[in-house]
Amino acid sequence: MTGHPDAVVVGAGIVGAACAEALGRAGLRVTVVERGAPAGATTASGEGNVLVSDKEPGPELELARSSLRRWPDVLRGAAAVAPDAPDPEWDPKGGLVAALDGGAEEPLTAFAAAQRAAGVDARAIGGDEARDLEPGLSPEAGAAVLYPQDAQLQPVAAATALLAAVRARGGRVRHGTAALGLVRGASGAVAGLRTDRGTIPCGAVVNACGPWSGDFSRLAGAPVDVRPRRGMVLVTAPLPPGTVRRKVYDADYVGAVGAGEADLRTSTVVESTHAGTVLIGSSRQRVGFDDTVRVEVLRAIARKAAALFPALARVPVMRAYGGFRPYTPDHLPVIGEDPRVPGLWHATGHEGAGVGLAAGTGHLLAALVTGAPADTDPHPFRVLRGEEDGRE
Amino acid sequence: MSAPPPVTIVGAGPAGLAAARAAASAGARVRLIDAEPSPGGQYLRGDALAGPHGGAAGQGAHVPDGAEHISDTEVWALEPLPGGGARLHLRSGPADGSGGARTADAPVLVLATGAHDRVLPFPGWDLPGVVTAGAAQALAKSQRTAIGRTAVVAGTGPFLLPVTRSLIGAGARVAAVLEANAPVSGWLRCAGGAAAGFGKFGELVGHTAVLARRRVPYRTRTAVIAAHGDGVLEAVTTVRLDPGWRPLPGTERTIAADALCLGFGFTPRLELAVAAGCATTGGFVRVDAAQATSAPGVFAAGEPTGIGGAALAAAEGEVAGTAAARACGHPVVAPLGALRRVRAGRRFAAALAAAHPLRPGWTRWPRDDTPVCRCEEVTLSDLHAAARSASGGRAFRLASRAGLGLCQGRVCGRNTAELIGLTDDDAQRFDRRPIAVPVRLGDLADGT
């Protein structure tokens, strides 16, 4: 390919891949720069959640609904231009949230009612009906909410497919290339990206570095407050099909997503994969980029999983893995142009929901870059909202 | 002043036992944790066939008096302790049983976790009847049972000879021993190293004499590149190799056999050392002259620090046990003899390694449909497809699923890395196993 790209996306995780794909589909020439291997960090540590069930009514839910609508089309479009890419295993399997004690029932049904009012398909069911759907569910579960819209995909395959589409449309993906900072023109606007393999002239740079977005934003001279939040997931040996059918989680999940404390938080999410293994998540902990495995964290996850699905207590846990989620102080992603540096865009801070929000984020970012209409209000995701609101 | 901490040793093979004896004789309390019911490891496993061990094994599978021997117990996770050493998470009994899960703090720790056989993939290597040389030897030694009636032993390295001897001792007919290298000329090129291990060399000559008496054909530059059978092994195809291990066309032969024992050297068990934060170099734990790793309070001995056999492992264990006792505050005498044996043993190990390298031509043995990862049934063409879409790192593992099954990449990790040409960083990912052995979710949940 000759000529310079219009936009360079920094970071080839699921969000960077979705932004690059959307920009390329909008007609821009795109280069993706990744210091490691594509989809090798947070994206490779996720469960592939595409959820509306865990979002309270508000801007994140609107972005999630936009994303949920778009994901199947985005994946079909990518497969049409790059048919050899791996199958992203899109699976609208549905979610089931169960209240394990009486005290959790009331908040859960109230939460679901508010979601219904916001347009989410959330069906309150009793414990027995929940056990018909998920036979392994604890007899303690007294009430549950079924979310038929919840879906799952294989995030590494999805990111790989999106990047293949970027290439198929003439874009480039340069892995093993670290972004070092911006080149800025006389007006102060972005004129290029400096990397350890030379400078790439371009008019727009997208910061999609996930948990490392704070680092890159500082290199770019426009810091945004995005920090890592550690998470751990347990993986069981392969189990018979049907052991766990949906995404099943404990009703205390929502409380953990909203929490900002450094303390260990766990909430149970249990689901099976195409390979037959069952993934059991997850924890949230602010320990910087410390990747030491803490057995107390694994224990806390295991304890809650065994409460939700008692039969899992007999199952061997084969491995554990961890990753870092990119989180912001107000738990909303940062999507938009940086007012301090024209041409610098951010698409980051999705915490544990990057896979679910990626398709909507790519759409919104491409709309903002090209001036096309967007189906989501970008205002809540603007850069520097903490400072102007005094919420920091 | 509080009592000195005990020396905790993981692994009761030659290295761990020697460490236990050295630490005990320096006056340290010793705690010896091992996955097997009785001490000895793979090398000293209840061997009724080969007669009393001299030299290498020294005092055999003897646990020193007063040492706490925690047998039948696996370390399923290890966490570094802030002041040095590590907290060990233990599980006893069968993997699917409800074993007593507990923890043990080890401020001074010796990791003597050994190694497992390396096997290379080729068509049919996953047939029943194809086993590792180590498994065949263990069965022969502990049960006095041969793995089959007619066996072929193939691979590279001196370990093929004692395995063959064990099989003969257990009543099998060994149709051929196939050495992929040409080791005699290899040793001659490293005369200094071979001379340094003269005692070990004599042991190997003894094995060769048994082979000659039994008229077992011993062929060099020859390998098995296919195993055949209808559901179970019936025959193997052998082929001559060029010096780079590429098969020489037209040299194929078929040998009827119901057992094929493969040994292509050893892969060190590194997961606990990696979890402890020990630095590695070239796939082995880096240690200083006192067998201390880069992690405070953690020592390592035996195969994790370099493949060298039982005699070297025992010498390293003695050094590590002495150093560990010193780290607990006990006065010790420098183990000069053991230090000398370590130096000599490493020279011999280097000579052996030079004579028995794995040559890159083996990557031509598997076909596109040959499984490379057996747990997840990942074929060579699956690996190549995954490598095309995911260039490395965790994404490659998730895309290919190689090494994600029950063995956690112990069998296929290094093979996959070499077949795909992964970077060292990505290859080392296979040695990271935060859960070192599977543990029941209920045991995980019940612990404190």
Textual characterization of the structure:
- The complex is a heterodimer of chains A (392) and B (448).
- Helices cover 31% and strands 26% of the residues of chain A.
- Chain A is an alpha/beta fold.
- In chain A, the strands form four sheets. Chain A has an eight-stranded mixed sheet.
- The longest helix of chain A is centred in the first third of the chain and has 23 residues, at 59-81.
- The N and C termini of chain A lie far apart (44 Å).
- Chain B starts with 6 loop residues before the first strand and ends with a helix.
- Chain B has a five-stranded parallel sheet with strand order 3-2-1-7-20. In chain B, strands 9-16-10-11-12 form a five-stranded parallel sheet. Chain B has a three-stranded antiparallel sheet with strand order 4-5-6.
- Chain B is an alpha/beta fold and 448 residues long.
- Helix content of chain B is 32%, strand content 22%.
- In chain B, a hairpin with a 4-residue loop joins strand 21 and strand 22 (378-379).
- Chain A binds chain B through residues 36-41, 43-45, 85-86, 154, 156-157, 159-160, 164, 175, 234-238, 275, 277, 280, 292-295, 298-299, 302-303, 305-306, 312-322, and chain B through 77, 79-80, 87, 89, 95-96, 275, 376, 385-386, 389-396, 398-399, 401, 404-406, 408, 426, 433-435, 438-442, 444-445, 447.
Secondary structure layout plus pairing:
The complex is a heterodimer of chains A (392) and B (448).
Chain A: E1 7-10, H1 14-25, E2 30-34, E3 49-50, H2 59-81, E4 95-99, H3 102-117, E5 123-126, H4 127-133, E6 143-147, E7 151-152, H5 155-168, E8 172-175, E9 179-184, E10 190-195, E11 198-201, E12 204-207, H6 213-219, E13 227-236, E14 247-250, H7 253-257, E15 265-272, E16 278-284, H8 295-308, E17 316-327, E18 334-337, E19 344-348, H9 354-370, H10 385-389
Parallel strand pairs in A: 1-2, 1-12, 2-8, 4-14, 12-19
Antiparallel strand pairs in A: 3-7, 4-6, 5-6, 9-10, 10-11, 13-16, 13-17, 14-15, 15-16, 18-19
Chain B: E1 7-10, H1 14-25, E2 30-33, E3 68-70, E4 73-80, E5 86-92, E6 101-106, E7 108-111, E8 115-117, E9 130-132, H2 133-143, E10 150-156, H3 160-169, E11 173-179, H4 183-189, H5 191-196, H6 198-213, E12 218-220, E13 222-228, E14 235-240, E15 253-256, E16 259-264, E17 266-268, H7 271-276, E18 280-281, E19 284-285, E20 298-300, H8 309-327, H9 336-355, E21 371-373, E22 378-379, H10 380-389, H11 393-400, H12 413-420, H13 424-428, E23 439-440, H14 441-446
Region (Disordered) (chain B): 43-66
InterPro entries (chain B): BFD-like_2Fe2S-bd_dom_sf (IPR041854), FAD/NAD-bd_sf (IPR036188), FAD/NAD-binding_dom (IPR023753), Metab_Enz_Cyan_OpOx_G3PDH (IPR051691), Opine_Oxase_asu/HCN_bsu (IPR017224)
Protein name (chain B): FAD-dependent oxidoreductase
